[in-house]
Amino acid sequence: MSSIISVSQLTNYITHRLTEDIRLKTLTVKGELSEFKIHYASGHAYFTLKDEGAVLKGVMWKAKAERLGFEPRVGMSVLCIGSIAVYKQGGYYQISANELVPAGLGVKFLQQKQLEERLAKLGIFAQERKKSLPALPKKIAVVTSLNGAALQDVLNIMKRRYPVAELNIFPAQVQGESAHLTIASAIRKADMSGSDVIIVTRGGGSYEDLMPFNTEEVAMAISDCNTPVISAVGHETDTTIADHVADMRAPTPSAAAEQCAPTVDSLISLIDAQKDKLDSAYGHYIGLRREQINILSQRLSAVSPYRIIDNNKNKLESLTSRLDKAYKEQISAKYSAIQNIVGKLEALGPYKVLDRGYTLTLKNGLPVTDAAQLTENDEIVIRFRDSAVTAKITGTIKNA
Length: 400
Fold this sequence. Notes:
The protein is of the alpha/beta class. Helices cover 41% and strands 22% of the residues.
């Protein structure tokens, strides 16, 4: 009796055997798509291939799915390039796809991938080479077919959203064997026209219809442009080499027109934003100038003749006040000194003794201090404290 193993052990064994088989590591399977969907959250693509005798489930991880150059549809015959893997949780094997190519276009698809790789090495897909779109383009160039719906979509959007722009149409064939040459020529003419932005566009179509936009001529014409380029080729799910080279990719022609045609609301918002910046800059400028004026005013005020006069006036008033005070102090001191002297003189004066009952004899207005000064018949004045009498010498004057 054989040994018992678990489901996981059996699955691991089958997985090991399948992954070790070199023939299953890189293979190309042809079949009809009976199911294809991209998971909304993960971005991974899940599909089923079938033929008249079998079905094969498949998965393409997000990084690979985003590089699909066409829109897979149920019933389409495709070539799937990948390796066999086991989905353990579901209990089945599947093909992990690296490439998914429409059958019959496999050679062209592979050639496109090789061209992409070669152009990528030249650096023309690099993000740092991308130019920004102008906010308010005055001249917009459109490279497309004159008879296509894409041109009408662009014209309608421009007329409705941004009628002030000048539209210049550079006609080109967008389908056929020589279409890529006319597209490249039209792009170069548009770049030399002085336009602010170039829209390269065409409507949806099959993978083969979009092949002119997967050529080196168109890629290099876009890469050489000094003017920003918007690529809007095919449907949203279509991706071309022109999309990778362009400065901006739009999913549809209408979206391309919207990207370079601002709405009235966006213009108003832009104007308001610029006004706010201007107001802020103006306020800042005025503030700086006011501060400078205040500084200059203070410096001017410091050296102003009026300020000098005021300062000297204050000094003069202070000196005047000090001089007046000193003058009064000097007068007071002199007055006190004089009063002191007067007091002393009065105390020593001859008239002071009159208050004590003495008299003062005057001859010819002069004090008589000695009897020898008098002779007979001299008139004298005898002065008392508060009166005086006149007398005449009649007798002989004798010394006491």
